[in-house]
């Protein structure tokens, strides 16, 4: 056995002291090819310093071997020594056979620094030099997958698969392609690839994507089956719960949807969107107290979520809790955070509490946003008329009758105003 082989054997047996001794002898006695193989093995095992020492020894002997420089740059990146990595890479010139590999390593370096535009430039340059190299295409595909540019990722994953490459670096390219299709909205193509993967080989992420794809293709029962399997395997996979509940809701399994969302909140208790979704299911089940509970809990996490504020406001108006609604919305109007519906809800509340001036102000504030909404216009017409605002009444009547021309009461009211010269 060579000293390199003895070192690796000692490492596999957990004999670190013996491994170090054999390593020292390997540096002195083993031939260069054996040492290079040892460096590769050590790098794979995470012994970066020992691997780097061998590469440096070989580079001193073979200064034209740029593969050694790219390997040393890789190690420098792993050790977070950016300057050293760039020094090694800058020594690899475009005419070198290792230049494409250097570009890939450099792209990886810039990705770690989140300099994605520069990273992309390096990868594109590598692809232009060697477009048929699978490793280059794979690097581009993975880069676009990382930055969520799934449409571009599809191109490279698909090309690799057509060339017979189904797995690179333990990454399942069929799975990646299916996920990329799903994330870019091509659900029929996505399901075609994701269904090719044997259930035992589906990762949690690809299981989720398959369930999500079934949901988008309006196949909620299939989506439920997939999401339930994922939940059994990994109950902490928080993202599945809102989509499982959505699938159950599509099948009108509202009790199941509510339980699913409550399970989801136990896993992801700071997700304000989950509280909102749970409240909406509670409302569909006509459990207004439970809905209010979840809406208020959601607001305690994210007070600036205006969708949740509006949902709670609508509930308070429905329950005729007009002062509670005013108290809720006033705090948002004071800090200039509002939805036009706030004005409408405030106008209704002010009107029922005989707060005429406030009701007038809020109806007028809401009017430009809802001047073509018959549900808003009808109560506004009655208010404008009672408040002695004939011009606003007539304008609202004309807008309303453009939508509902057969409403006899409103037709007669408009005729009365027109007879008075308005």
Structural descriptors:
single chain; Serine Threonine Protein Phosphatase 5, Tetratricopeptide repeat; mainly alpha; 25 helices; 422 residues; two-stranded antiparallel sheet
Short description:
The protein has 422 residues and is mainly alpha-helical. Among the domains are: 1-63; 198-302, Serine Threonine Protein Phosphatase 5, Tetratricopeptide repeat (Alpha Horseshoe), CATH 1.25.40. It has 25 helices and two strands.
Widest beta sheet: strand line-up: 1-2
Query: Into which percent range does the helicity of residues fall?
Result: over 70%
Mean pLDDT equals: 94
User: Main sheet?
Assistant: 2 strands, antiparallel
User: Which stretches are poorly predicted, pLDDT < 50 over at least 5 residues?
Assistant: none
Q: Determine the number of helices (DSSP H or I, runs of at least 4 residues).
A: 25
CATH topology of the domain at 198-302: Serine Threonine Protein Phosphatase 5, Tetratricopeptide repeat
CATH architecture type of the domain at 198-302: Alpha Horseshoe
């Amino acid at each position: 056995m060579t000293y390199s082989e003895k070192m690796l054997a000692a490492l596999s047996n957990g004999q670190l002291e013996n491994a170090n001794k054999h390593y020292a002898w390997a540096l002195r006695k083993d031939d260069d090819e054996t040492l290079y193989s040892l460096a590769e093995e050590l790098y794979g095992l995470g012994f970066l310093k020992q691997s780097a020492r061998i590469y440096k020894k070989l580079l001193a002997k073979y200064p034209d071997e740029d593969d050694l420089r790219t390997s040393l740059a890789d190690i420098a990146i792993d050790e977070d020594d950016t300057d050293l990595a760039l020094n090694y890479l800058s020594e690899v010139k475009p005419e070198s056979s290792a230049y494409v590999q250097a570009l890939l390593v450099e792209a990886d370096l810039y990705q770690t620094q989140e300099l994605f535009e520069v990273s992309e430039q390096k990868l594109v340059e590598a692809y232009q030099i060697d477009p048929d190299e699978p490793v280059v295409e794979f690097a581009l595909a993975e880069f676009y997958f990382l930055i969520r540019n799934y449409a571009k990722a599809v191109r490279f994953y698909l090309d690799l698969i057509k060339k017979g490459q189904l797995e690179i670096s333990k990454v399942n390219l069929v799975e990646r392609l299916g996920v990329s299709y799903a994330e870019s909205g091509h659900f029929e193509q996505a399901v075609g690839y994701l269904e090719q993967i044997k259930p035992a080989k589906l990762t949690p992420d690809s299981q989720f994507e398959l369930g999500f794809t079934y949901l988008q293709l309006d196949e909620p029962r299939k989506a439920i089956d997939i999401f339930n399997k994922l939940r059994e395997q990994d109950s902490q996979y928080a993202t599945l719960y809102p989509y499982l509940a959505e699938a159950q809701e599509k099948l009108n399994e509202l009790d199941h949807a509510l339980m699913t969302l409550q399970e989801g909140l136990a896993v992801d208790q700071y997700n304000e969107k989950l509280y909102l979704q749970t409240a909406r299911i509670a409302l569909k089940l006509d459990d207004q107290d439970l809905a209010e509970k979840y809406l208020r809990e959601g607001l305690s996490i994210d007070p600036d979520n205006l969708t949740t504020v509006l949902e709670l406001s609508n509930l308070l108006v429905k329950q005729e809790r007009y002062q509670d609604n005013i108290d809720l919305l006033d705090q948002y109007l004071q800090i200039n955070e509002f939805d036009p519906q706030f004005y409408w809800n405030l106008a209704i509340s002010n009107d029922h509490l005989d707060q005429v001036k406030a009701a007038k102000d809020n109806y007028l504030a809401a009017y430009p946003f809802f001047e073509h909404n018959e549900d808003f216009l009808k109560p506004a017409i009655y208010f404008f008329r009672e408040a002695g605002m004939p011009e606003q009444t007539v304008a609202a009547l004309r807008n309303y009758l453009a939508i509902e021309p057969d409403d006899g009461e409103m037709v007669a009211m408009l005729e009365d105003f027109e007879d008075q010269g308005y």
